[in-house]
Structures are given as structure tokens and as C-alpha cells.
Design a protein that fits this description.
Radius of gyration: 22 Å
Structural class: alpha/beta
Number of strands: 9
Largest sheet: 6 strands, mixed
Shape: globular
CATH class of the largest domain: Alpha Beta
Order of helices and strands: HEHEHEHHEEHHHHHHEHHEEHHHHEHH
InterPro entries: Bact_solute-bd_prot1, SBP
Number of helices: 19
Keywords: Signal
CATH architecture of the largest domain: 3-Layer(aba) Sandwich
Oligomer: single chain
Number of domains: 2
CATH topology of the largest domain: D-Maltodextrin-Binding Protein, domain 2
Distance between the termini: 17 Å
Strand content: 5-15%
Helix content: 40-55%
Protein name: ABC transporter substrate-binding protein
Pfam family, one: SBP_bac_1
Length: 425
């Protein structure tokens, strides 16, 4: 209850002043045959090209129906949607990830539960079974139709490693530190480029901390905090500090973002990155040819006996708004069309998407995405993804705490205190 009251206050404080300008956000059309679709697909991207063709196909097959796009940049979409919703002018269907503020949408009637629709429309069997629990909240409500997921391995540029005298990709923490020493001896800024100033660094910090943290305890800490008083969390953070102080991460990691991290890898400046499958799709062929995927190397005596990776099905889902429920027949036709196996496979094959739907997962034009999806569990263990457990209002303060963690001089106790403060803020 305390969390819900806090979130309500946060949303009101941030979004209420925007109501005076919400007319400009009006997606526009009360026509029952016009579906307003809010997304962040970027014109010129492979995903948008597939979507554009799929939208045209839907309109041809449904004479009189029209799909009107409302496009917002990735981080702006949630704020734009919430502001429009407060004015009753929100889009009918929104495609967005399940994380941070969207975790509270169903609680505040910003979107409607869709479990009943999934059953009535006979679409449950289209969804991978492991995706449904991730999209089901603590009240048992399916908050959105699962659409896309991800695999999040570690990418190693074997050409750079071999040039530095590193034999094989590091699988233990000791091998990782040795590789960092070797690449720095050749003048590199570090071994691992990481967005210490954004979400990518937050995920890696939490993943490294889990080296000494059993999964159930990790879930509890991500939900409730208490890092500074948990001996195993502190041991995991001490391990992070050891890696940082050994020069494993790029110099100035606390100021790097995910875009810079990706660029470092794409241009052959970084030997190692923790890279989500959506970014792996953009690795240039000349780099992809020398990349080996694996997990984050683990220390001796940790709770995982294999390098760790992350995976999940929360990258994007199809959420139905209260406005959309007024056009539910049209919404049904649209979601059914997207959920068709032939339609979904276009996103997999032509755009390298990792979908939460059943069907072949081959992406021949995106070999690293295919390799990430098919990474064998004999090679990696999967750590706990924080997103489904961290309270929505905590996400941004937690990222700020992460930036401090990558700053030289912060010890494990200080980092843990910063993480706990993020929850209290």
C-alpha cells in the first residue's frame, strides 16, 4: 500500500502540470474503425519496415479499418502516454516494455487487464509459457499481450583478445582480470565498455552482485532493498569493487551510456560488452565474424558454477487502454493479425526480433541474435533480472546510484548504502 500511495504522488506531481498542454498530445480519432497505435518504432529501422508492411496488410484485409501511428522516442513514450491518459486522450493500443513506471499502469487504470481477452480470443497457445508469468502481476492480472523478449549474453571480440595474448574467452573472474591487464598493456582504455551512467550499467552491477547472492535473496533485495545489511550482497559488491579497481571496466565508465558502449564494440574499440540481443542485431558483419557469446565470468566460491547471462520476455507487450476497450472488436482484429505465426515470423527473420510467441526462432540475417537465443544452458547460468522486482519509482534513483558505483573510490559499503537510499528516495 505504501508503494502504491508513493507512486500515485509521483505520477500526479510529474504529470498533472502537463494537462494544460495535453491537447497537442491528442492522438486524434474517435472513429470506431480507426485504431491509434502508440509505439517507438523508428522509421528506417528493420522493425519499422516490417511493421509498416504488416500494417498495410492489415488495412487491406480489413476494408474501412485504419491504423493511425503515434510515435514517441523510447524513454518519452511512457510519459507521453501517461499524460494523454490523464486527459482521456490516450492511444488505443500501446507497444512498450514492462519495466519501471509501466509496472503500475494496471493499478491506476491506465491500461486494462487482458487475460480475459487472451482466453476469449484463443491466443494463449500462441504465447511461450515462460512469458505469461512475467506479464502477470501480483494480483494475478495479465497486464499486456506479451510480444517481444530478449537474450542478454556477454559478447567477446576474439580478435582483440587474441591480439592481447588472451587464449580463449574469460570464464572466471581471475581470467577476466588477467585479460584486462593484457589489453591495457596494449594501450586500451579497459577491457569492458559499459554504460555506467544508465540502465545497462545498472543491470551489470546487479548481475555481478549476484555472484554471491542466491536467486531468492536477490529477488527479495530487488523488491525491498536492505543491501547494506545483507552479508552476501556486500560480498557480491566487494567482488564488483575488486573488478572495477583492477581496471576491468573502461576508464570513466561512470559517464558512459549504452549508446557509447555499443559504439565502442561496433567499432572494435572494446573487447568485451554485456549486450542485449536488440543491440547484437546491429553489430557490423566484420565484427560479428569474430564475436563469441558467453556469460559474465564468475568468481571462485560463488553461487553460480557457470558464467551468467540474463534473459526475459518483457521487452515489449501490447497494452490495451480504456479508449482501446471502447473499440475492442477492432483491437481484437489488430492483435490477432500481429499474433499470426506468419506475421510474427517476419519480425524474427527480417528484423532479428526475439518474440515471446511460439514458432521458429531462426534469424539467418542476424547470426548473433540467433546465437544469443540458442545459448545452451550448459554454457551459462541465468541470473535474476531486476526489472520485475524493483519498484517503479525506484528505477531512476537506482541508475544514479549505479553511476556512483562505477566511480573509483566507492567501497562496497558505500555502494550498498547508495542503493538503499535509492529505495528511500
Amino acid at each position: 500500500m505504501r508503494r502504491r500511495v508513493m507512486l500515485a504522488g509521483t505520477i500526479s506531481a510529474i504529470l498533472a502540470p502537463a494537462l494544460s498542454g495535453c491537447g497537442a498530445l491528442d492522438p486524434g480519432d474517435d472513429d470506431p474503425e480507426t485504431l491509434v497505435f502508440h509505439h517507438s518504432l523508428t522509421a528506417g529501422s528493420a522493425s519499422f519496415a516490417v511493421y509498416d508492411a504488416v500494417r498495410a496488410e492489415f488495412e487491406r484485409e480489413n476494408p474501412g479499418a485504419r491504423v493511425k501511428d503515434l510515435v514517441s522516442g523510447g524513454t518519452d513514450l511512457i510519459n507521453v502516454y501517461e499524460t494523454a491518459r490523464l486527459a482521456g486522450k490516450e492511444a488505443d493500443v500501446v507497444l512498450v516494455n514492462l519495466a519501471e513506471k509501466s509496472l503500475s499502469w494496471t493499478d491506476y487504470d491506465a491500461t486494462v487487464p487482458v487475460g480475459g481477452y487472451l482466453e476469449r480470443w484463443g491466443l494463449r497457445d500462441r504465447v511461450l509459457p515462460q512469458a505469461l508469468p512475467e506479464w502477470t502481476d501480483a494480483e494475478g492480472r495479465l497486464v499486456g499481450f506479451p510480444w517481444s523478449g530478449f537474450s542478454w549474453p556477454v559478447a567477446f571480440n576474439t580478435r582483440l583478445l587474441e591480439a592481447a595474448g588472451v587464449s580463449g574467452v574469460p570464464r572466471t573472474a581471475a581470467q577476466l582480470v588477467d585479460a584486462a591487464d593484457r589489453v591495457r598493456a596494449r594501450g586500451a582504455r579497459g577491457l569492458v565498455s559499459i554504460g555506467g551512467n544508465d540502465w545497462s550499467g545498472q543491470k551489470l552491477l546487479m548481475q555481478i552482485m549476484q555472484a554471491h547472492l542466491p536467486p531468492e535473496r536477490a529477488r527479495r533485495l530487488f523488491a525491498e532493498a536492505g543491501f547494506a545489511s545483507d552479508a552476501q550482497a556486500l560480498r557480491g559488491l566487494e567482488h564488483f569493487v575488486e573488478l572495477r579497481d583492477a581496471g576491468v571496466f573502461f576508464d570513466g565508465a561512470q559517464g558512459i551510456n549504452a549508446d557509447s558502449m555499443n559504439s565502442d564494440f561496433y567499432t572494435g574499440q572494446a573487447a568485451v560488452v554485456s549486450m542485449i540481443s536488440g543491440s547484437l542485431a546491429s553489430v557490423p558483419p566484420e565484427v560479428a565474424d569474430v564475436v563469441e557469446l558467453g556469460g559474465w565470468p564468475v568468481p571462485a566460491g560463488g553461487v553460480y558454477d557457470k558464467p551468467t547471462a540474463l534473459r526475459g520476455y518483457t521487452s515489449a507487450g501490447l497494452w490495451i487502454s480504456p479508449n482501446g476497450e471502447e473499440k475492442i472488436d477492432l483491437v481484437e482484429r489488430f492483435i490477432r493479425h500481429l499474433y499470426r505465426e506468419a506475421t510474427a515470423q517476419r519480425f524474427v527473420r527480417e528484423a532479428g526480433e526475439v518474440l515471446a510467441l511460439r514458432g521458429p526462432a531462426e534469424s539467418p540475417d542476424f547470426p548473433l541474435v540467433a546465437a544469443a537465443v540458442n545459448l545452451p544452458e550448459s554454457a551459462v547460468s541465468y541470473a535474476v533480472l531486476p526489472d520485475l522486482h524493483v519498484p517503479p519509482a525506484v528505477s531512476q534513483p537506482l541508475i544514479r546510484a549505479t553511476s556512483l558505483a562505477f566511480t573509483p573510490g566507492r567501497d562496497a559499503q558505500s555502494i550498498a548504502a547508495d542503493l538503499d537510499t535509492a529505495y528511500r528516495s
